[in-house]
Amino acid sequence: MADFEKISELMQKGKADEVKQLCAEALEEGVAPKDVLDMALLAAMNIVGVKFKNNEVFVPEVLIAARAMNFGLEILKPAMVDDDIEEIGKVVIGTVKGDLHDIGKNLVKIMFEGKGLTVIDLGADVSAEKYVEAASNENANVIACSALLTTTMTQMEAIVKAAEDAGIRDKVTIMVGGAPVTQKFCDSIGADIYAADAATASEKALEVCTK
Amino acid sequence: MTGKEKVLAVLNKEKIASIPWLPFAGVHSGRLKGYTAREVSTDAAKLIESLREVNKLYKPDGQPIMFDLQIEAEILGCELLWSEDAPPTVSTHPLSDTADIPEHIPAVNEGRIPLAIEAMKAMKGEIGDTTALYGLITGPFTLASHLRGTNIFMDMIMNPSYVTELLGYCTKVAKAVSTFYIEAGMDVIAVVDPLVSQISPDHFGEFMDKPFAEVFDLIRAAGAKSSFFVCGNASANIAPMCKTRPDSISVDENVNLATAKKITDEYNVVIGGNIPLTSVMLFGTQQDNMKNTVDLIDSVDNTDLLIIAPGCDMPYATPVENTIGVQQAVHQTEQIREMVKNYEGTEIEFEGELPDYNNLEKPFIEVFTLDSITCAACTYMKASAVDIKEHFGDKIDMIEYKYTDPQNIARCKVMEVKQLPSIYINGELKYSSIIPNRSEFIAVVEKCL
User: Fold this and answer.
1) What is the pLDDT of residue B272?
2) Does B96 touch chain A (CB under 8 A)?
3) What is the pTM of this model?
4) Is residue A84 part of a domain?
5) What is the DSSP letter of B436?
6) Which of B67, B89, B203 best tests the A interface by mutation, with the highest count of A CBs <10 A?
7) How far apart are CA B121 and CA B124, in angstroms?
8) Which of residues 73-92 of B touch A (CB under 8 A)?
9) Which residues of chain B have pLDDT under 70?
């Protein structure tokens, strides 16, 4: 019988090869791939997210766990039937124009994926128009934008405005975050959600996508 | 005591009556003289002029020369993305696809090091007797991440020996640049390593202990003082940082200063910090800045081994009056505590009467100051008004309102004065925080005659 707990523990430690092997064994035993995904991999990433938020694990541990998750996904995805791949929601993510810092953005992306959300990663130095174009084309539920600099966070206002101009403002939730960003700033530019950390961002995005 | 004596006394772990103030005016310095971030990052004359203004307006006890973590990286092959209102950012990582360890150590005449050194020497000559000068270098871990990119985090788990080797190289760079800056007269070398907040204490012990201890040992042996600057939530790494034996550490608002100070006190290490950069310094009012600083000072168990500073490099557009407010609150804590209390007290009614500004007999210059005796910017602002009064004689009237008097606080509220020091002419705001130049000021008054 597949030991979800064990896969989860190994994933949290970043043991990618072992995770891959146990996922394969679980499938051979006839366990539904979606169960392995939900009860082992996503459960593990949820724990990593909470520990990261609580300052119990740090950037290297999150990245290595995400790598292990991807090793597991390589096995599970091809085995999933259409019914399993139910899209919970779609998020367009990026670091704003003029800002090349993407560590935080990447961590948030990992946590989004850990919640089973589909993520379209636009990378760093992303213009307001690009966010909106991608959100529009992909019919995304959430635009998540990150900034590390006090000088680039002002770009977030342009994203809100671009979404309004494109006529998608009422269809998309705009989430903002990054070191200099605050709830007050979020309110002042008319964005919808401020998230102080990656785990909170993913919880709030999931809430938006499932309501 | 001069500011420099205060900083050095605290770094020597002496108990002194006042708390040193260390404004991290990096590219923000340029704003004081109308220069862009790029200009003060690439032009020594403009940088020096701006640093002079920082010293004049902000009355620092200690002052950094440049707050630029890209100087070493640029020399070592990282491309930079330049900005007019922020320091440059590293945009490429030469080691991202190779596990090679570079050998090149920056020379004193390479990249922007000569620019930094020219400014250091000039400021040493001008203000070095009274202000402790800080030379900032890029810490080994952040330099390694500039070179390698974010792969460095995965490397720590998957290829630890490579990380150790790369950090060894970056330590050599840090030691070389520290030596250049000490030789240029810097009193304190700040090893700035924001990324340290992103790793666990275990990883700190495994990878960072030796590199940082080596750099701090070198600085100590060269007769200078040291500081370990970190940004982000470094709460878990305060003790490990202390164990690398810096004279001081500096943290941003993600760390609770009072909690961290209990740890640094145990290690007899000075702690500096941590006025919030965005919510308070950039977007807050002058009142917010004064209150926040007083509250911060009140939050710690004792004010020994303490330096008050912004959380990190000040945003370019930080309002000048906010920094002046922080400076006053550090240097005149009791007076500012009283001002904040009076400002917040709703019971103070303005008892006087505002002049009939539309029917004045002659132009009326009103100078609103925190206190023109203790606040440097206020001193200069008032002096410029006194000078103008002398120039025009009986043709104009001039008065100063000090914020130390509750009635003057009430007057500020009635007149909606938001920033101090400010100059109003005939009831209208003309100058705020930045001191007007004489000819411009004269021309403005002449128009009112």
Assistant:
1) 98
2) no
3) 0.91
4) no
5) P
6) B89
7) 5
8) 81, 83, 85-86, 89-91
9) 345-347
CATH of the domain at A206: 3.40.50.280
Of the residues B84, B158, B196, B251, the best mutation for testing chain A's interface (the one with the most A CB atoms within 10 Å of its CB) is B158
Q: How far apart are the first and last CA of chain B?
A: 45
Q: Which residue of B has its CA nearest to A150?
A: B315
**CB of B263 closer than 8 Å to CB of B238:** yes
What SS3 string covers B192-209? ECHHHHHCCHHHHHHHHH
Q: Is the ipTM of this complex over 0.90?
A: no
Q: How far is CA B301 from CA A40, B24, B257, B262, B304, in A?
A: 46, 24, 10, 8, 9
Q: What's the domain count of chain A?
A: 2
pLDDT for the residue numbered A83: 62
A105 plus A57 within the same structural domain: no
Last residue of a domain, one of A53, A79, A105: A79
Residue pair B373/B379 in contact (Cβ under 8 Å)? The answer is: yes
Contacts of B153 in chain A (CB under 8 A): 59-60, 63, 103
- pLDDT at B348 (0 to 100): 76
User: If we measure between CA atoms, which residue out of A156, A197, A157 comes closest to residue A178?
Assistant: A197
- The average confidence (pLDDT) of chain A is 93
How many other β-carbons are positioned within 10 Å of the β-carbon of residue B409?
23
| Domain around A24 | 4-79
In terms of domains, do A120 and A169 share one? yes
Q: Which CATH class for the B3-332 domain?
A: alpha beta
Both A65 and A111 in one domain: the answer is no
Nearest-by-CA chain B residue for A185: B279
Rounded mean pLDDT of A73-84? 81
Answer yes or no: do A98 and A199 share one domain.
Answer: yes
Pick the residue from chain B with its C-alpha nearest to A59: B198
Instruction: Tell me what pLDDT residue B280 has.
Output: 92
Q: What is the CATH number of the domain that holds A58?
A: 1.10.1240.10
Establish if A103 belongs to a structural domain.
yes
The pLDDT score that the predictor gives to residue B342 is 81
In a domain, A177, yes or no: yes
Q: Which residue has the tokens 């959380």?
A: B311
pLDDT tens figures, B84-95 = 999 999 999 999
The pLDDT tens digits for A6-20 are 999 999 999 999 999
A41 occurs within a structural domain: yes
For domain B357-448, give the CATH number.
3.40.30.10
pLDDT digits (tens, 9 = 90+) for A143-158: 999 999 888 998 999 9
Mean pLDDT score, A161-165: 97
- Residue A49 sits in the same domain as residue A146: no
Are A102 and A180 contained in the same domain? yes
Please report the pLDDT score of residue B112 as a whole number: 98
